[in-house]
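User: Show me an example of a complex going from sequences to C-alpha cells.

Assistant: Sure. Here are the input components:
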Amino acid sequence: MNQTIIEFNNFKWHYSNNKKFRLDIQELKIRKGSFVGIIGPTGAGKTTFCYSIMGVVPHLQKGRMEGSVRIKEIETKNSSLNVLSQKVGLVVQNPLSQMSGAGLNVEEEIAFGLENHGYSRQEMIKKVKKIIELIGLKEYARRSPFELSGGQQQKVAIASILVLEPEILILDEPTGYLDPLSTDMIFTLVKELKKQGKTIIFVSHKFEYLNELCDEIILINKGKIIKKGAPTEIFSDISLLSKNNLSAMDVTNLFARLKKAGKWKKRFAVSVEESEKELRSEFPWMR
Amino acid sequence: MKKIAKGKIKFGQELKNEFNTFGLVLIPVAIAINWVGAYFAQLLKLPIWLDTIGTMISAILVGPWNAAIAGALTNLIKWITFDPVAGPYAITNAAIGITLGMLYRKGWFSAKPTVSQIIKSGIIIAVVATVISAPITVYMFGGVTGGGVDLITAMLLGTGGMGGLLTAVFSSELIGDLLDKLISLVVVGVIIENIPKKYFKQ
Amino acid sequence: MALMITSFIQRDSFIQELNPISKIFLILLVIASIIILDNLYITYFFLINVFFLAYLAKIEKEFVKGITIVMLPIAVWFLIIHGIVNPAGKTILFKIWFIPFRKEGLLFALNFGSKLVTIISYFYFFIITTYPGDIVGSFSKIGLPYKAGFLINSSLQMLPLMQRRAEKILEAQEARGLKVKGKLKDRFKAYTPLIIPLILGALMETYERVLAIEIRGFSAKVKKTHYKEVNFEKKDLIFCFTYLFLTLILIIGGGNF
C-alpha cells in the first residue's frame, strides 16, 4: 500500500553556466501519501529539488542532468511537462506571478490549466466548480485575480494546480509573501489536502507548522541531503540545525538553555504542546 | 518557408522562436512598459515621449518581430482607449522594434552598449521613425484628396499657400525623435545590464 | 468585474448582450455601404442609426459626450485644412483674416469627413458596449488562434496592473525624497529611479510567470479548449439579418436617393 511515488537515483544536476553540481542526491524514496517538509538555508538547492520533481529541471532549465527522477513509473527526463503536469503540481512563492493573465476572473484562471490540456467544456465546468467549493473561493469566483490579496491569490494558484488533479503537490515557500493570517489560511488548506491522501512536499522556514503537519523532514544543504528523519528528531537537534545555518524554534532553544544551566537532562521539545507535556512530567508541582 | 541561407535557421522557425511562451508573456508587459514609460514622462513634464522603451526591450530580449507586434499592439490599444490618432502610428512603433532587433542581431547594439553604439543606433532608429511617421501625419491630417492629385506632391509644391509642409513636419519631428530615442536607448541599456545573466537568452 | 482599460459601460440592455461578432458584422456592413454607395444620405442614415443604437443600449449620454469630445476637434481641423489647402479648391467662399476658404475643399471635407465620423462612431459604439472578456470568447468560436486570445486577455489586464504599480513606485520614491517638480535637469534625473524599478520588477515577474504557465501545460501539443464561450443566439440572428436586409435594400435602391 505504501508504494514509492517519487524516486531519485544517482541524480545530479548543474545549471549550464556552472560546473559545480547544484543538486546531488544518490538515493531518495518518497512514499505515496506522505507529507514531507523540506528545510535548508538559502541557496541550499531546495528550489532545484522541487523543480526536479516537477520536471522543470530538465525541461525548462538549461543544464546537465545525470541519473534519474521517477514519478511512479515515469522518468522525468523522458517525459514532458504536459504529462508531468497531470501528475505533479508546483506552487511557488510569488502569488502574482502565478496569475496567468489569461483568466479575466478566478473561474477562468482556474480553468486555464484544463484548457491547455484540452478538456471538454462540460468537464471543465464541473471540475472548476468542485475545486472552488473545496478551496472556498465561491465568494471571489467572478472577480479578477489581480484584485485579490496575496493570500487569496495563493489560494487561486493552489486551486488552479489542484484542478488538474495531480497526485503530488509541491509547495515552495508558498507563504513567503504572505501575512501571518494568510499564512495560517494556507497551512489550514494544506492540512485538508493531506487528509485527502495527496503526497505533499512542502518547503518552508516555518518549523512550527512543519512539525505539526509533516511525516518526515528532509534537511538539504549545499545541494545534498544532510539528514532525513521524523520532525521531532530533526527539530530538536540544535547543533544539526545551527551547523546548517538554521535556527531552532524558540521552545527548543529554551530547553537547550535549561540544559546548559544544568536544570534539564531530558530531550528538547519542539512544540508548545510537547513542552507542556515534558515540563509537567518532570516537575510534579506543575500538574 | 524559404531557407535564407545554408546554416541559418529558417524564417518560419525564427518566427516561432519569437512567439514561444516567453515571447508571448513578454508582449503585454512590453506594451505596459511603453504605456507607463510615457506616463512617467508626462508626469515629469519632459519634452520627449519615451513611449517605446517596452518595444525596444522586447527587441533585445526576444527579437524584431516580437517587438513589432508589441509596438503595433501598443498603438492599437491606445487607439481603442480613445486616442483616435494613435492607430496608424502602429506602423512606426513596429518599425522601431524591427530596426532595433535587427541592429542587435547585427551587433550594432549590444547588451552592454557603448556610447558610440547608442548614438549610432539612436540616429538610425530616429530616422526610420521619422521617415515613416511624417507621411502618416501629413496624410492623416490632410486626408485623401478627391482631385486625383497626390497630396504629398501638393504639399511639397506648396499649393494653397502652405508650401513645404512635409519638409517642415519632417525636420521638427526628427529632432524630437532623436532625443527621444537616444534617451530611451540609454534606459534600455541600463535595464539590460541589470538583468541577472542567467535570465538572458531564454 | 475585472480591472480593465477600455470604456465598457454595463447597462441592462440587449445590445451589451449581443455577440461581439454581430456588432462587427454591422460595422462591416456600414463600411461596405458607405464605400460602395458614396452617398451622403446613406452615410447620414447610418450615423443616425448608431445614435439610435446607443439609445437602445442606454448609453446615449456617454456616447454623445465621447463622440463630441473626440470628433469635434478633428472635424473642425479637417474642415480648415481642406478648406484652405485642398488642391481641388478653386472657388473662394469666404475669408478669415485674409485666408481664403474654398468651396470645393469644404465640400470635400464635409463629404469625406462625414463618412469618417460615421465609421469611427461605430467603432466607438462597439468599444463601449462590448465587454472585453466576450471578445476572445466569441472570436475563439470562429477560429481565433489560442495564442492570440491569450495575448488579448493578458494585455487587457497587464496594463492597469502596471499602472497601479507605477503609482506605487511613484509614492515610494517621493517618500524617499525624489523631486518630481523643478528644473528640467532635475526632472530628467527623476525618470530613471521611477522607470528602472518598474521594468526590472515586471521582467522578473515575467520569467516567473513563464514557469507558472508552463507547469499548467501551456506548451502541451493538444488542441486547446475554451472555458468561456459566447454563443450566437436568436437576438444575434435577428440583429444581423435586419441590418443585412436594410443594407441590401439600400444598395439595390442605391443611387436613387
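The lines above are the inputs; the final block is the predicted structure for all three components together. The two ends of chain A are 42 Å apart (CA to CA).
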